[in-house]
Automatic annotation (TrEMBL):
Membrane-spanning parts: 28-46, 53-82, 88-110
Keyword Membrane: yes
Superkingdom to which the source organism belongs: Bacteria
Keywords for this protein: Membrane, Transmembrane, Transmembrane helix
Name this polypeptide is given: Phage holin family protein
Any Pfam family: Phage_holin_4_2
Source species: Leeuwenhoekiella nanhaiensis
């Protein structure tokens, strides 16, 4: 149940960011929900592989390269989901940072005590 609520909150954050950022386009709430699921799956499957493959550059940059890994995950989601368009790596980076910020605020609201 908690996972479903997190997916719905992420979809809301995706649709809001789609309206706020000119380089990101989301066609509908259903598309935003699919994007939330795809991002969750990509973070679960692809992100650990990318982290292992880019470990030396991540260490050299003191972890800042992880921001670009998150942006790559967003671009991959844009590739897989029709109706979700990100215009470039910089928009993906901004989208990723704001999505993480929105998620931490929204997920704090449903945190169990």
């Amino acid at each position: 149940m908690k996972t479903l609520i997190k997916l719905l909150l992420t979809a809301i954050a995706v649709i809001v960011l789609g309206y706020l950022l000119p380089g990101v386009s989301v066609t509908s709430f259903l598309t935003a929900l699919v994007v939330a699921v795809v991002i969750a799956l990509l973070r679960l499957i692809v992100k650990p592989i990318l982290i292992i493959l880019t470990l030396p550059i991540t260490i050299i940059t003191f972890g800042l390269f992880l921001l670009f890994i998150n942006a790559i995950i967003i671009l991959l989601a844009g590739y897989f989901v029709s109706g979700f368009v990100v215009d470039g790596i910089w928009w993906a980076l901004i989208f990723s940072l704001l999505l993480s910020l929105f998620q931490s605020v929204l997920f704090a609201l449903i945190k169990e005590e």
